Fold each of these.
Amino acid sequence: MFCPYCSKETKVLESRLKDSSVRRRRECLSCSVRFTTHEKPVFQLSVIKKDQREEPFQIQKIQDSLQKACSKTEAEIIHQITQRIERKVIQKKTNQLTTNQIGKLVLQELKKFDKIAYLRYATVHKDIDDPKLLEKELKRIKG
């Protein structure tokens, strides 16, 4: 990496893992200025919607839907669940996912965390509008 001040080469003094990124302390070999960089991998994921449209994967959409489903849950817990889902999406090792695949990952996490939030999310994701279908879903999470 080049120094942001003089554009000369830098060296890494130390590296630390922080959440899903790497924090590096650097020093310029020319002007001796020290600075910090944060590195995070970037993935070009896309989502195939139910109407076959394709759009870029946005983890914020998952976090927003979790926030709605979990209503009064602390933001930090929602963030942790979102990170677990994002890791599972990346572990699929594919650049294209369907909304159905993502929904199943969300439901897996919600089933472990909060059964009422699971039902809230499932009614939207699975388009449940019949009480008999809701009853089936209740039996599924009990079982």
Amino acid sequence: MKHINVLSRIFFTGCLFGAGCATTPSSRLYRLDARSETVEAQGEVVSRIIRLNSVTLPGVLHQPTVITETSPVQIHSSEYDRWAESLERQVAEVLSRNLTALLPNAHVVRGRMHPDLKADLEVHVEVLQLSGTLGDQARLDLRWSQSRRGEASAALHRWQGQRTLESMDVHAYVLAQSELLAEACQIMAKHLLSP
């Protein structure tokens, strides 16, 4: 009888362990994507250097989980939907890649990379909002300052955009944010090209 009880306990424990393992979902990792198509260089090649000096995000976005909104006063942090790397680093990389595609006559560098290069333009980007509600909309609100070498004052610009989400999944949300960043870069590129 004792032998049967021991076997029953082992079987029961094995079932619990197996059930626990079978129901634990794995994490889904996401990354933003540069969406701007490369523009062909026009005229002579200009050796203008643009330094994307800094990119900052709201404090709530400094965590590995994907944050979305469920109401104007409530956010949702998904346990299993995570960023593949720092969101701040991803935004900086995507902005840099998009601007490089849109400004073929310029050389875009990030932060302190290539410290020996003297930049013709210094750009600082502040993301004010990168949010959305699944199944509804994704929103992006950012401002940036740009200053030319030797100038004390900086021009300040702001851009806001939104995209309708066709589905309730995080994948659609991340794609929409990538598209919004590409659209913001089109506006930024126009300002960066202006005299």
Amino acid sequence: MKYESVGVRSSRRPGGAQGRDRGTHGFGRPGSACLSRDGGSATVAGCLALIALLALTVLVTHVGGVIAARHRAQAAADLAALAAAAKLLEGADAGCGAAESIGRRMKAGLIRCEIAGWDVLIEVEEKVPVGPFGSRSIRAIARAGPVAEER
């Protein structure tokens, strides 16, 4: 038996849209209609996760910098108070001068130097840059002097 090509339809459709009548939605797999709507969503989610991770890293770095600056300021105040107490035999001005010198070397500004008898109270300040949030002032206070004897 011979077939005529007059009544036979081609399985190819114009424009390359073959296979759509079988429920494949152009991807060659049946039932993949939801994949055609979600194309690239994993890339967007990955980019958002990367941005969140970078923001968290920057935040933790800045907080760590502020904490380290607080420790440096406290160390500067402690050393300045000890230096001032060591120079008190030469007078109050010599004690505060020694405290200011130590503060300058440790890149902290001397805010207050109070001397009462043999006790020295020192307050220092250090500026810390916090990135896009400007800068922050860190203050630390230390006291040095003789220990009261218990009788």
